[in-house]
């Protein structure tokens, strides 16, 4: 009888271990299932219309975008604060506008929940603060889109423009990764003998870097997340 107690202890410990491992596996599976669902739902969202003008290889291409509307706010920190910090600082303000912190211009003038879109846009330059924006669905115009209640949120139409874009997967890119991808784009443009037009109406366009995120940074697995870094070829953004 004396030897039974150690046996029971080992038996219980073994099964507790199996239960814990099994529970962790179930949680991991549930997390990835939720991530895949979030990815598939994001893929259904409206994005700005564009035409691929030229493929440069290695995930890079030249795109010509049609005009579209955005809701935009500017990060309060200096330009050196970086893209990720700017995104965290402004996301709730923009999300609040999209999800109803606004005044409808049609109907009875109450607040209006708007459809989600992609991508989340960030753009910054060497001497300017980072701007963060959400794309507004094509069913709206500047005359019909709900009016923001937050003064920080501005509405504007992005004119037609041409970008060189590099697409890659993974977690939201660090500022170092963004700079690396920008340098890749610039090298590819030189190799393809593509000249970026100097924008006399918007001198910042020459140094502007855009970062686009198409999936949430928490639920969607990094391997499925689509990120893009872009530079302006022609026009303004």
From TrEMBL:
Q: Which Gene3D superfamilies match?
A: Regulatory factor, effector binding domain (3.20.80.10)
Q: Which InterPro entries match?
A: Reg_factor_effector_dom_sf, SOUL_heme-bd
Entry's Pfam families?
SOUL
Family per record:
Belongs to the HEBP family.
Q: What is this protein called?
A: SOUL heme-binding protein
Q: Which organism is it from?
A: Pseudo-nitzschia australis
